[in-house]
Amino acid sequence: MQGEMTRRSLIGHVLGGLVGTVGVVGLGVNQLGARAATGGEPFFAERYQGRWITGGGPQAQVELDRRDRGVHGHHGQPVVTVDGVPLHVMRGADGRYVTSVNHYQSFPTLKAAARAAAESLRGAALEVAA
Amino acid sequence: MIRKNQATLTSEEKARFVAAMLELKRTGRYDEFVVTHQEFAMSDSDVGDRLAHRAPSFLPWHRRFLLDFERALQEVDPAVTLPYWDWTDDRSTRSSLWAPDFLGGTGRTSDGKVMTGPFAGDTGKWKIIARTDSRSYLCRTLAVHEPALPTAEDVLKVLAEPRYDVRPWNSSSSSGLRNLLEGWRGPNLHNRVHVWVGGHMATGASPNDPVFWLHHCFIDLLWAQWQAEHGASYEPKRREPGVVGAADAMKPWGDVTPQDMLDHRAFYTYDVDE
Ligand SMILES: [Cu+2]
Fold first, then answer.
1. Between A92, A119, A127, which is nearest B46 by CB?
2. Which of A10, A42, A122, B41 to pair with B231, CA 20 to 30 A apart?
3. What is the interface size between A and B, counted as CB pairs within 8 Å?
4. What is the pTM of this model?
């Protein structure tokens, strides 16, 4: 699946991952394209080790907040989800990322942080912090 | 009150430490500590307020955190003190630290679940409550995500730092004992050990693994050794954006300052203290 997906099926999966847990509806191809183009890290979505990981930012968070029905991120913060559940992620002073799952390591990109989380979870579901 | 190297504990000392841990877990006291750590882990930010991590107060904050925990253990059994894990010496996954009569071993490959020792999920006595994922049992992946623990040479390099901490007082501080000991720069000491243990130790809810206390006890000892050489200084002297000065109160206590924590001998000694 990685890299092999058509754009159409990719969008389908993005929506599949977001709808329900995050409550994002009505995101079209144009909006996703715009997201990737408007600063921060490009939006990504891929299947990795059996998990559906998405992320981008900080513009991706702004897009999510606009439709917010579940994600309580901070405005201007990057966002990552694993199987649709938001992962707590923080940007360090050096521009690298730390997550609540890998709290003592930093990663150069959101995608690397999401992949590391998927590996550490070993099949377990993320839980949204209270 | 003397804190000892875990490698020197008698089997009775190990058993009493384990029993006190299990009792704190049973009463719910233990999870209050995990929750506190997790809350700070989530909010400590390089660009915002930071106390427990990525900040000069990393060391005094954890010194007090450990002291509170040790006092809780002593309410159960007054003879118990926190042991430390010298990972420059006990570097193997086959160390007696991970034996079934002490902390138990690494987790199974499929999901990281610890299967041996008193903290294994199947004992029913160590349920993981404050957590980042759905696993309700203790997880470890020893030496999987990080092949080797820091060496004595790595430690010496860090203890040679002349300054306690430097601007900008966060994870990007390029020198200073605190950031090199925490591990965001230099040979990577504290952070690397969390990753080497893996499982819950790698998360913001790391105190779920009992080894958290033994690891941080050694970090505390290394701080004391640095102080013996370089003096009990703390920087910054006065509050700067996002971080506390030497005489400013730290959360969650409200009446504890970094300065109050500078001399560990006011509270306990280490078996290696002079
Ligand atoms: Cu730590």
1. A92
2. B41
3. 81
4. 0.88
